[in-house]
Write a structure and sequence with these properties.
The chain has 446 residues and is α+β, with helices and mostly antiparallel strands. It contains 10 helices and 12 strands. Helices cover 51% and strands 19% of the residues. Strand 11 and strand 12 form a beta hairpin.
Length: 446
């Protein structure tokens, strides 16, 4: 039968199980100790009586008179009898033994009797030559030390058990302090409040440090997740306002009065364009919030950077041909890399898209991909360029250098922000060098 205990408190459960296990161990120890202690006492008494019997036998061998043996100072506290043919030849004055014959059936016997606080021990040894007979030695009033030990254990062990339980309770109180702190802090955490973390102490044990670090990391991940969600909601509401307003305006105008089919076709095409814009905005914003430092490594695989780059260039051939822009691979090497293929493709395609958008017709875009001590990817165009004071802001979401100047160029200001985020997730470096009306040179180092 298995005994089950149900406690709501972990501390109570540990204390109860500790008390049960400790009690069982103390009982087992006490029983074992008491048994072996008794055995040791019995052996010690038997050895003493055996030495006395042998001493008496030696006196007999030396032909010493029995009267002198009785007067010997070494054995005067011992009761003894010398027996031949089951009859007592000589005995001490105090010696008395009932049913003597049953004790001397064997050559060597030891008996011990518990008399309450004292023990009585009897030892019989038989001899053949020169003395042919038995010697019985009896010692009365032997102090029962095992009883004293038992009494001491009955008093001390409950005290020891209570002391150990007290120490365990105090130790648990100290050990559980970080857990109590975690509980208190977790109650204060909400979507509006992620400012609380647990401070590490140099005295904290390794397991507690792991728990505290894990909890603080969890708070940081939750905070990042909520911030990303808030940013996403803010960005979506901000950026979708314009295309939704255009769509609503087109529908309102179309519904005011009956119009010809060409007008409706034009209106529907305008709505379709705005829906495509909305889809592009949402896709890009989702890509910005989809990956983080914590989960990106799980998506890494071995891939060919050169193949991904060629795929990106191929997808922009038609757009570059329309502007008669020539894409030149100046330095191009096959390179294996471990990363997220979707983000790597996004890096290459966004940089190509920007270079083509902001380059004049009949110009050249030079691309390089090579490896030295690190991996280098560069895109150099002959486009409109970026003013020096705007370069630091160009990777911010929805930032465009000159909206009035670039309003003919479609875009939402998310491309370089996605590139920057994707490069950082691969522990890379993004460098932007540009001069207005001369072009832009973008370097990425992995």
């Amino acid at each position: 039968m298995v005994i089950k205990f149900h406690f709501k408190s972990l501390k109570t459960k540990i204390v109860v199980w500790f008390s049960i296990v400790t009690t069982i161990l103390l009982l087992l120890f006490s029983i074992s100790f008491y048994y072996y202690f008794n055995q040791t006492i019995d052996i010690s008494i038997q050895n003493d009586l055996s030495k006395t019997a042998l001493y008496i036998e030696k006196k007999i061998e030396d032909n010493e008179s029995l009267d002198n043996i009785l007067k010997d100072e070494k054995i005067k506290h011992i009761e003894f009898a010398i027996i031949k043919n089951h009859n007592i030849v000589k005995k001490s004055s105090k010696f008395y033994l009932k049913n003597m014959n049953k004790y001397i059936d064997t050559n060597r016997s030891f008996y011990i009797t518990d008399k309450g606080e004292y023990l009585k021990a009897l030892f019989i040894i038989g001899f053949k030559q020169p003395f042919n007979g038995h010697i019985i030695v009896i010692q009365n009033n032997i102090d029962d030390k095992s009883e004293n030990v038992l009494d001491s254990m009955l008093v001390l062990e409950p005290i020891l058990l209570l002391l150990l339980i007290f120490i365990v309770i105090k130790a648990l109180d100290k050990i559980l302090i970080p857990i109590k702190n975690i509980t208190q802090i977790s109650k204060q955490i909400s979507i509006e409040n992620f400012s609380h973390t647990i401070n590490l102490s140099s005295t904290d044990e390794y397991e507690l440090k792991e728990l505290i670090n894990s909890f603080n990391d969890m708070i940081k991940r939750l905070q990042d997740g909520v911030e990303n969600l808030d940013r996403f909601n803010s960005d979506v509401s901000h950026e979708l306002k314009t295309p939704l307003t255009i769509i609503k305006g087109e529908i309102d105008i179309a519904l005011k009065k009956q119009r010809d089919s060409q007008y409706y076709i034009k209106s529907l095409n305008s709505i379709k364009d705005e829906i495509i814009n909305i889809q592009s905005i949402v896709d890009n914003l989702l890509l910005l919030t989809k990956y983080s430092k914590e989960n990106i490594s799980q998506t890494f695989v071995k891939c060919d950077l050169d193949s991904i780059l060629l795929q990106a260039i191929s997808s922009y051939n038609d757009i570059s041909n329309q502007k008669n822009i020539k894409i030149v691979l100046e330095k191009f090497e096959p390179i294996e890399y471990i990363g997220n293929t979707q983000l790597l493709y996004t890096i290459f395609s966004n940089l190509l898209d920007n270079s083509i958008k902001y380059s004049s017709s009949n110009t050249t875009i030079i691309i390089s991909l090579y490896k030295q001590d690190k991996i280098y990817f560069t895109v150099e165009d002959q486009g409109v360029g970026i003013p020096r004071d705007k370069i630091d802001k160009i990777t911010e979401k929805f930032y465009r250098v000159d909206e009035s100047r670039n309003k003919a160029i479609k875009g939402f200001g998310l491309g370089l922000s996605i590139v920057q985020n994707s490069v950082e997730l691969h522990n890379g470096i993004l460098e932007i060098l540009s001069k207005p009306n001369q072009g832009t040179n973008i370097n990425i180092i992995f």
